[in-house]
Amino acid sequence: MNKIRIGIVGYGNLGKSVELGIRQNEDMELVGVFTRRDPSSIKTVTPGVNVFTMDESKQMTEQIDVMVLCGGSMSDMPVQGPEFASLFNTVDGYDTHARIPEYFAAMDKNALESQKVCIIASGWDPGMFSINRLYAEAILPAGDTYTFWGKGISQGHSDALRRIKGVKDAKQYTIPKDQAINAVRRGEMPELSTREKHWRECFVVLEEGADKERIKQEIKTMPNYFADYDTEVHFITEEELIKDHPGLPHGGLVIHHGRTGLDEKHHHVIEYRLALDSNPDFTANVLVAFARAAYRLNREGVSGAKTVVDIAPAYLSSKSAEELRRSLI
Amino acid sequence: MNKIRIGIVGYGNLGKSVELGIRQNEDMELVGVFTRRDPSSIKTVTPGVNVFTMDESKQMTEQIDVMVLCGGSMSDMPVQGPEFASLFNTVDGYDTHARIPEYFAAMDKNALESQKVCIIASGWDPGMFSINRLYAEAILPAGDTYTFWGKGISQGHSDALRRIKGVKDAKQYTIPKDQAINAVRRGEMPELSTREKHWRECFVVLEEGADKERIKQEIKTMPNYFADYDTEVHFITEEELIKDHPGLPHGGLVIHHGRTGLDEKHHHVIEYRLALDSNPDFTANVLVAFARAAYRLNREGVSGAKTVVDIAPAYLSSKSAEELRRSLI
C-alpha cells in the first residue's frame, strides 16, 4: 500500500501534535516539517523527522500528498494558505469564523487552478462542531442550536492576563454555566446573554510586590475579554500553576433542541460533547483525518476549496466502504 | 423554487411521522402516500393527502423526486426496496445491521441501472449513530467506541411481552447502566457483557386471573430477549400504562474514548447523545433530511446505493453552501 505522504507547515503546538497524530494512522507517513525558522534550530518531538525551509517545499510537490497548515489564523494563514493551495492539497484549522467566506474564496481560486483539494476551517470549532450544528438543524428544523465551550483553557484570554503589568504568568478557563445548559436541555429555548452562557476563571501568578486589588479590577473590567462575563480571579504561586493547571485541556458541547409531531408536542435533544485533555492534539487529529479525505478526493479528480461539511464522512476513515457497511453502519 | 416532491411508501408509525416531518421543510411537498391496503380505508394525519395503491406509483415516476420507504426491515424492505430503486430515488431506514451488505448490493444494482440514488440504513441507528462512530474512530484511532441505547421503548421487546399467555398489554424500556457509561468516560476501556451495558424494565398489564409469578419467570428467562439481562417486571393497571407510559420515547449515546500524545498520555471523550420523545418522529426527520440529499445528488448525476456515511453533510441542509460558510461553519 502506498502511504499518504504528509507535510507539516509551521511547528508550534499544533504542528507537534500533527507529528504525533500521523503516527497513529498506519496509512500515513510524515515527509517533513516546514518552518520559517532555521531548520537546524528545530528539535522535533519524535526522532528522525526531516525539517525543511518553507522555500524547499516548492521543489517537493511530487513527494508530498497533503500539506497540513499549522500557522496562526490571524496573520500566517491568509498568506500561507493560498500560496500552498497553488502547489499542494492542504488541510487547515483556519478559525476566524467571520472571515471564512473570504479565506474560502482565496483558497478556492488557487486550488481550482492547481487542481488540488484544500479543506479549510477543520478542527473542532470550526470543524466537528460545525458538522454537528448542520446535522442537528437539518434533522430538526423546528428547533434551536446552542454551542458552549469549556471547561477549557482559552489561550487568547490567558495571553491577555499575561499582558497585564504585574502578572508573571496566568491561565484562564472558559466554563459553561450549568443552568444555561439545563435550560436548553429542558427545551426552554432561552435567549442567553454572553454572561449567562459562560463564566471565566483566572489563575494568576503575580510579580513580586504587584498590587492584587488593582490587577483584579483590571481583569474584571477588561473590555471584550472579561467585562461581559462573571469572572473569578485566584492568585496562586508559580508552583501551583505548574502542578494544578498543566497542558491545554478544552472541550464543549453543541446542543440542539427540536420539536416534531402534531402541534410540535414531541421534544428531542441532540447533544455532541467533547472533553479533551489536549486541545492541540485533538485539533491535530481532526486535521489528519481530513488530510486523508483531501488525498482521496483529489485522486478521484476533485479540486477546489472545501469545508468539513462538504466532505462525506467515509472519506475520513481508513476502512473501505465494504468494511464500513459490514462493521460500522 | 421547485419543491422536492416526496412520496411515502407504507403508512404505519414511521410513514405518519414522515408526513409530519415534510411539513417542517419549506423546500419539500408531499405528493402522496402509497399503501398495500385499500387507499379509501386510510385516514391520513393531516388533511388533503392523496393516497394511492402501490401499483399506481409505477405511473408516477415523473411526479415524484424521492420515495421514502417506510415498510418493515424484516419482510417488506428486502422486496420493496429493490423494486422502488428501479424507478425512484429512495431513502429508507433499513435496520437489520447484519444484512446491510446484502441489501446494499441489491439496491445498488437496481439504482445504477435506473440511474437513481438510493440511501439505505438511514435513521439514528443505523444512521446518525453510524456517522458518529465513524467520525470518532477516524479522529481518535487509538481508542474504543461504545454504543448505548435508551432509555427508551423497544418495540420488539414490548411485542415479545405481549405474546406471553396472560399478558394483556405491556411496554419494555431498554436502559443503559450508568456505571458502564461512567467507566467508558473515565477511559477504562471496559470489556462489557450484555448484562453490564443495559438493563430492561417491563410494565405489564395482566389478563384477569393470570399467574403473576409464572409470567414474571417466563419474562426473566426468555432467551434472546431477557435472559441475558437484569430485568425488572412491574405489574400495573391498563390505566397506568396509558397514563404513565405513552408514546415511543427512545434515545441513546455513542461514546468514544481515545488517547493521543507521547505515551498516549492525553485522554479524550467524544459523546453523541439523543433523547427523543418520539422514536418514529426523529427517525422520520432523519429520512426526510437524507431525502433532500438523494434528490440533490441525483440532480448532479450521481447514481447507485449509498449509506449515510457516503453523503457529505451539506447535502442535508436546505441552506446554500455560501450561507453555510457564512452562518454555520
TrEMBL record, chains A, B:
Catalyzed reaction equations: meso-2,6-diaminopimelate + NADP(+) + H2O = (S)-2-amino-6-oxoheptanedioate + NH4(+) + NADPH + H(+)
Molecular function, one GO term: nucleotide binding
Keyword Ribonucleoprotein on entry: no
Quaternary structure annotation from Swiss-Prot or TrEMBL: Homodimer.
Domain Meso-diaminopimelate D-dehydrogenase C-terminal: 123-278
Biological classification of the source: Bacteria, Bacillati, Bacillota, Clostridia, Eubacteriales
Record: residues binding NADP(+): 11-14, 35-37, 70-73, 122-126
Residues the record lists as binding substrate: W149, T174, R200, H250, N279
Pfam short name (any one): DAPDH_C
Enzyme class per UniProt: oxidoreductase
Lineage: superkingdom: Bacteria
Keyword flag RNA-binding: no
Entry-linked InterPro entries: Diaminopimelate_DH_Ddh, Meso-DAP_DH_C, NAD(P)-bd_dom_sf
Pathway in which the depicted protein is active: Amino-acid biosynthesis; L-lysine biosynthesis via DAP pathway; DL-2,6-diaminopimelate from (S)-tetrahydrodipicolinate: step 1/1
Protein name: Meso-diaminopimelate D-dehydrogenase
Membership in a protein family: Belongs to the diaminopimelate dehydrogenase family.
Entry's Gene Ontology BP terms: diaminopimelate biosynthetic process; lysine biosynthetic process via diaminopimelate
Keywords: Amino-acid biosynthesis, Diaminopimelate biosynthesis, Lysine biosynthesis, NADP, Nucleotide-binding, Oxidoreductase
This enzyme's EC code(s): 1.4.1.16
